[in-house]
């Protein structure tokens, strides 16, 4: 089923400095996770939730991303001639899975500014924002639940995950009130990367948002915050007071590809679960772990 009124926005204008020198010429969103670039997993997630219109916000030197989602007639012709139809299908999948658009952010002024660049494309409709650093396992439901809560209430919805207090300073953190649904909370406030002592809860904001178009008006007058950037968190905090914002608590599998160690863990976990790679990889992993 296609969620025709909802479009997806994927900000991909960051510099990826944590992965230098690999990201000197290669966008971090194009770093491979097993055999697909990270951003393809994010687009596939949107498509699985019924969204077929995707806008990717690009920065300077990010042409590799648009190239990946474009057709490559020479490669496809070569694979056809060789009769390698499985690889041909996988190459064509990235081109055919959705209607993908691109816009440049220009100056890197923060996530809030990147989202604001989507205003013309999104128009007066609810839209999803999916961050490429967070991969949600395709076997677990998140975006569909967020869409359902928005359709039920008309409110913006943010994805939350319970995090160890020792790591809470790495996230935006929500102050929450419970509802009748144990997996849905009402957000009363947001704090960007607080200390463990100052955190209002252990509910961290992860990279999935379902936003009503009113967020654009808020972002228009949101002053630069932490790091001198326009923070989406600041706009959402204002929305929480004026309109109301819900949080969907995600209890499934999430892979953080924005951190080197977590990126390696994501590759290992996803590869180990695959039918074509797992049978050979899992025994090797057990043997390797015993030698440590």
UniProtKB/TrEMBL annotation:
Reaction(s) the record says it catalyses: alpha-D-glucose 1-phosphate + UTP + H(+) = UDP-alpha-D-glucose + diphosphate
Ranges in coiled-coil conformation: none
Top EC group: transferase
Gene Ontology BP, a term: UDP-alpha-D-glucose metabolic process
Nucleotidyl transferase domain ranges (all copies): 7-270
EC numbers, comma separated: 2.7.7.9
Pfam family, one: NTP_transferase
Keywords: Nucleotidyltransferase, Transferase
CDD domains linked to this entry: UGPase_prokaryotic
Single GO term (MF): UTP:glucose-1-phosphate uridylyltransferase activity
Similarity comment: Belongs to the UDPGP type 2 family.
Protein name: UTP--glucose-1-phosphate uridylyltransferase
């Amino acid at each position: 089923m296609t969620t025709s009124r909802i479009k997806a926005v994927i900000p991909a204008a960051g510099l990826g400095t944590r992965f230098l020198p690999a990201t000197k010429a290669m966008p971090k969103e194009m770093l491979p996770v097993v055999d697909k670039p990270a951003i393809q997993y994010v687009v596939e997630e949107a498509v699985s939730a019924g969204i077929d219109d995707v806008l990717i916000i690009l920065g300077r030197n990010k042409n590799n991303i648009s190239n990946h989602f474009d057709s490559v007639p020479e490669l496809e012709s070569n694979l056809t001639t060789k009769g390698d139809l499985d690889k041909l299908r996988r190459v064509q999948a990235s081109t055919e899975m959705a209607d993908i658009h691109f816009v440049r952010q220009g100056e890197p002024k923060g996530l809030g500014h990147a989202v604001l660049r989507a205003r013309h494309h999104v128009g007066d409709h609810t839209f999803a924002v999916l961050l490429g650093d967070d991969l949600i396992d395709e076997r677990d439901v998140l975006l569909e639940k967020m869409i359902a809560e928005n359709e039920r209430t008309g409110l913006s919805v943010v994805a939350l995950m319970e995090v160890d207090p020792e790591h809470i300073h790495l996230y935006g953190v929500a102050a929450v009130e419970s509802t009748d649904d144990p997996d849905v909370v009402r957000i009363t406030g947001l704090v960007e990367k607080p200390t463990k002592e100052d955190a209002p809860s252990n509910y961290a904001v992860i990279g999935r948002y379902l936003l009503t178009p009113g967020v654009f008006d808020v972002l228009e007058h949101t002053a630069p915050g932490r790091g001198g950037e326009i923070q989406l968190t600041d706009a959402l905090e204002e929305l929480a007071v004026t309109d109301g914002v819900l949080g969907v608590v995600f209890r499934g599998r999430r892979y953080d590809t924005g951190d080197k160690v977590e990126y390696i863990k994501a590759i290992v976990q996803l590869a180990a679960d695959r039918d074509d790679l797992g049978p050979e990889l899992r025994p090797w992993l057990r043997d390797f772990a015993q030698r440590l």
